[in-house]
Amino acid sequence: MDQAHYFNAEPGVPDVRRPLAVVLEGREVTLRTSAGIFSPDGIDKGTAVLLAQAPDPAPEGHLLDIGCGWGPIALTMALRSPAATVHAVDVNRRSLSLTLENATLLGLENVSAQLPEDVDPGLRFATIWSNPPIRIGKAELHALLRLWLPRLAVGGEAWLVVQKNLGADSLARWLAEELGGAYDVARAATSKGFRLLVVTRRS
């Protein structure tokens, strides 16, 4: 599939929903997927690294998944932190619809899926998890991270998984320079060709 589809608000391929068998939090579940979204056939390698390596999200408050696709990150956050509110954002309306459908299938009532511009700008997030869309280009990626990372609550953490050969180390350097002294940026882990970066807001 032309990957440009999942960067569009309305993908240019038919929305034909089909079952998706995956394992989330040790449970075999059957969810729903469709064409025109990111990684429609399962959990991609980068997301799998994030879910395996990142510590549990904050147990309460507001949590954020940037670029939700069919929902593996948001659903995992919601399963691990049932007392928190998970906000799944994506520019792709089909992804938002699937994330909400899959949350319903799992009986999760703490997941909200919205376009970025519909999220309350006053919200501050205790935890952000993301497999950011590196392939949208550096300028667009930087704009995306500038939008969301300053919305971390003090003491909050953002965990980002980035493929090593797609500029993970240069992104870490840029984040440290861009965010300044109120934030710490570190490389937390390396696994299967991916870096796991953590951004912590100190003040």
From TrEMBL:
Residues 28-188 form the Methyltransferase small domain. Keywords: Methyltransferase, Transferase. It comes from the Bacteria. GO terms for biological process: methylation. It holds the Pfam family MTS. InterPro entries: RsmC/RlmG (IPR046977), SAM-dependent_MTases_sf (IPR029063), Small_mtfrase_dom (IPR007848). It comes from Sinomonas cellulolyticus. One of its GO terms (molecular function) is methyltransferase activity. This is Methyltransferase.
